[in-house]
Amino acid sequence: MRLLMTMALCCGFAVNVSATPESDREALRSYFEKRIPNVPLEEHINGAYALDEAKRAQWLAMEDFPPYEFTIDEGADLWEEAFDNGETYASCFGDSPAIKAGFPYWDAEQGQVITLDLAINQCREANGEEALDYLGEEMAALTAFIAYESRDELIAVEIPEDPAALAAYESGKAFYYQRRGQLNFSCSSCHVDMANNMLRAERLSAGIGHTTHWPVYRLKWNAVGPLHKRFMECNDQVKAKSFAPQSEEYRNLEYFMTYMANDLPLNGPASRK
Prior knowledge:
Blueprint: H1 2-10, H2 21-35, H3 53-63, H4 69-80, H5 90-93, E1 105-107, E2 112-114, H6 116-126, H7 137-149, H8 163-177, H9 187-193, E3 198-199, E4 202-203, E5 216-218, E6 223-225, H10 227-237, H11 248-260, E7 270-272
Parallel strand pairs: 5-7
Antiparallel strand pairs: 1-2, 3-4, 5-6
Helix pairs in contact: 4-7, 8-11
């Protein structure tokens, strides 16, 4: 509790440690509506491109011939490809691949947050297949295809009335606001407290739609990569301990961040610098 109270006091955005998930979401949205009143809330699904007109123009030009296009095609083939037992991903997820809006979710039986990436590997293992590398090309292709098929669906993540589910949500929330690393930065330091400010040559995006557009083709990666790779990179940048992709820490963080984006439309995959 002392740690959470410290988090509440150290940040420019007041964190109510006794709040409900829904009151957290409403408070964060209200904060950005007041901090950046000239940008409609839904526009924040485009990250920094919602805040910088020049960079937005460059980005839109790149989207005319998106660098993730071939990755989507590869994912479509993988979705249809049969496992050795004759089944496909449809045996786990249904015929429609437009499933991203409900991820991540709390699985009471497993007692953990299930992300889309984790669910894909659980589907594979249930069908006698080896798990995919969470940072590999096949996982990127599958999630890019699913994200593309799910475009414009509204995020609909639930926090059930289950103490364990709420604890996972609160764990993700604590991670988001807790300062770490030699630079003593939290996720919220950049994307809440300093949102819309410049950090060197980059404008800092608002932390309200960050999970809508993944996976992402990043120019610096020269490839499509997952959200958890970006989490790892952020931790490295502030000289903090990085966790493995799909670790409990990062899945809980994704759970919190995605709930904050509830009712915003999905727009992945996307391209970023």
